[in-house]
Write a structure and sequence with these properties.
The protein is mainly beta. It has 6 helices and 15 strands. It is globular, with a radius of gyration of 18 Å.
């Protein structure tokens, strides 16, 4: 089944101390790979695959091939703030853990401009539900059959953050609203926000929400997963591409993730909606992620 057909079914399944364009940019005192400041970052700032948080737009950028790319992911100061304590992650070797290192790993995967991901959304059975198998490189995305070899959809994300799908008949890329329901255009945070309204007015989207709750994380030595049992979020009445009628909600979420051996990125993650006030048909909804080929993903797009 084509991706556009699969993810159209989802509603049924569910019901950056440097200068940017502005002043006052700083790098977190505790280190890390994220910068922040007012306005878009200057390309002279930072190294490839570092991140920048624009305090004006609340957008997160990643640098690739010497250029900063606006990922249109909505964040907050939780991405670099030390308010939750540098060493407050519990239970790993009975000691603390550098929370900024964990935050960098989360951003490296979920805001990645070059990665392959198998993403699934399901209610009870992880072998059922809807899925996306996607390769991303910069603003180019290719959706594949579940075997990961048969390509189906080619999408470019414009400078406006919108999805443009390749039309085989005309040989052109045409704006396609529905692709924003099917592909991480341009990030996985955006996709779960659009589809399931995982969003907090103060914290932004998924990754920023998780970073704000890292002080609650425990480490399961037997599974290798960090687990956050409860995260509470709220958003006032608002809309997404899917929720065209304004909806206000309070949600309780859980999140678990596993790091790579070098602890620089997330290999597997899972977010679950435990409860919701106004979107009851989403209770129990789980979205899982498997990341691989980080910074080595090759994408071939039609000219």
């Amino acid at each position: 089944m084509r991706l556009n057909k699969v993810f159209i079914l989802l509603p049924i399944i569910f019901a950056l101390a440097a200068c940017g364009n502005g002043g006052g940019n700083t790098q977190p005192a505790e280190g890390g790979k994220i910068y922040h400041g007012n306005g878009a970052p200057s390309d002279s700032l930072g190294e490839d695959y570092s991140h920048y948080y624009n305090e004006d737009s609340r957008h997160v950028y990643e640098k690739k091939d010497g250029k900063w790319i606006d990922q249109f992911a909505i964040g907050s100061s939780s991405l670099y703030s030390t308010s939750n304590g540098k060493k407050m992650l519990r239970a790993k070797n009975n000691g603390g853990y550098d929370s900024q290192k964990i935050k960098d790993a989360l951003m490296t995967s979920f805001y990645s401009t070059n990665v392959t991901c198998h993403m699934k959304g399901y209610m009870d059975n992880p072998d059922e539900g809807s899925w996306v198998y996607v390769k991303a490189d910069g603003r180019n995305f290719v959706g594949y059959e579940q075997d990961g070899t048969t390509s189906m959809n080619y999408v470019k994300v414009g400078e406006d953050g919108k999805a443009y799908c390749y039309d085989k008949e005309t040989g052109e890329y045409v704006e396609n609203l529905y692709m924003s329901f099917e592909m991480p255009t341009p990030t996985f945070d955006n996709l779960v926000h659009q589809l399931t309204f995982i969003y907090d007015d103060n914290l932004g989207e998924q990754t920023s929400i998780v970073c704000a709750n890292l002080n609650k994380a425990t480490y399961n030595k037997s599974t290798g997963y960090y687990e956050i049992a409860e995260m509470f979020i709220h958003h006032d009445a608002g809309t997404t591409l899917y929720f065209t009628e304004p909806v206000e909600d309070d949600m309780k979420l859980s999140f678990k993730f596993k790091l790579s051996k070098d602890e620089t990125y997330v290999t597997n993650a899972e977010i679950k909606i435990l409860s919701t006030v106004n979107l009851k048909h989403f209770e129990g909804m789980t979205t899982s992620y498997e990341f691989f080929n980080l910074h080595t993903t090759v994408v071939e797009m039609p000219k």
